[in-house]
């Protein structure tokens, strides 16, 4: 299997998975500890945007914590799963079918979340992605992103899966508008040899550069 970047590839994977979301390689039943820890530090919920929401696990978690959630994905099947799970849980959220690089935000969000979207995107779309993220984040807003990490300059890209990028390159990509508030690494071993046997996931918490990064 080639590296997943194009919309057609995602259609094939969703068609293969059918209604069984557990077949999707990016599906997860629980939000990351990283997201839960950050949300626990907020005194009150706000407006959240989950870009590339997938099957909606993070969106549902945020909605369950009282956040006003908008879930965005370019895959109809992903949004159907998200909407169905929200209805089953008795939660309300807004779903938008759109490619984030072509979408024009009409609102500002206190929290924008990317759980693995950027690293599955063609690099020529990066500038548009960045532009849309900056348009969506409120002046005192925050941005969370999970990204496969390139641990050393000479670490090779895997045969399949997301593109690995160094922490320094991620910081530069979002500067100067966003300033890193917290960073964590999760090492995952026992992976298929096609991804190198192990991966490192980088978790980034950014705030607007002119906001107080030490504020709760």
Automatic annotation (TrEMBL):
CDD domains: AdoMet_MTases (cd02440). GO terms for molecular function: polyprenyldihydroxybenzoate methyltransferase activity. Residues 49-137 form the Methyltransferase domain. InterPro entries: Methyltransf_25 (IPR041698), SAM-dependent_MTases_sf (IPR029063). Transmembrane segments: none annotated. It holds the Pfam family Methyltransf_25. This is Methyltransferase domain-containing protein. It comes from marine metagenome. The lineage of its organism: unclassified sequences, metagenomes, ecological metagenomes.
């Amino acid at each position: 299997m080639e590296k997943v970047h194009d919309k057609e590839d995602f259609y094939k994977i969703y068609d293969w998975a059918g209604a069984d979301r557990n077949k999707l390689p990016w599906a997860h039943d629980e939000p990351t500890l990283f997201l839960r820890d950050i949300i626990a530090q907020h005194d009150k919920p706000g407006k959240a945007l989950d870009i590339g929401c997938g099957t909606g696990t993070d969106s549902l978690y945020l909605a369950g914590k009282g956040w006003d959630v908008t879930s965005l994905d370019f895959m109809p099947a992903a949004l159907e799963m998200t909407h169905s799970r929200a209805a089953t849980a008795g939660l309300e959220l807004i779903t938008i079918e759109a490619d984030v690089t072509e979408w024009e935000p009409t609102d500002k969000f206190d929290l924008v979340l990317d759980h693995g979207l950027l690293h599955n995107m063609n690099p020529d779309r990066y500038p548009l992605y960045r532009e849309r993220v900056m348009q969506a984040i409120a002046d005192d807003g925050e941005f969370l992103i999970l990204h496969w990490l390139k641990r050393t300059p000479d670490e090779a890209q895997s045969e399949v899966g997301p593109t690995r990028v160094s922490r320094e390159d991620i910081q530069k990509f979002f500067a100067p508008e966003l300033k890193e508030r917290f960073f964590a690494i999760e090492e995952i071993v026992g992976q298929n040899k096609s991804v190198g046997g192990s991966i490192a996931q980088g978790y980034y918490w950014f705030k607007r550069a002119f906001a107080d990064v030490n504020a709760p």
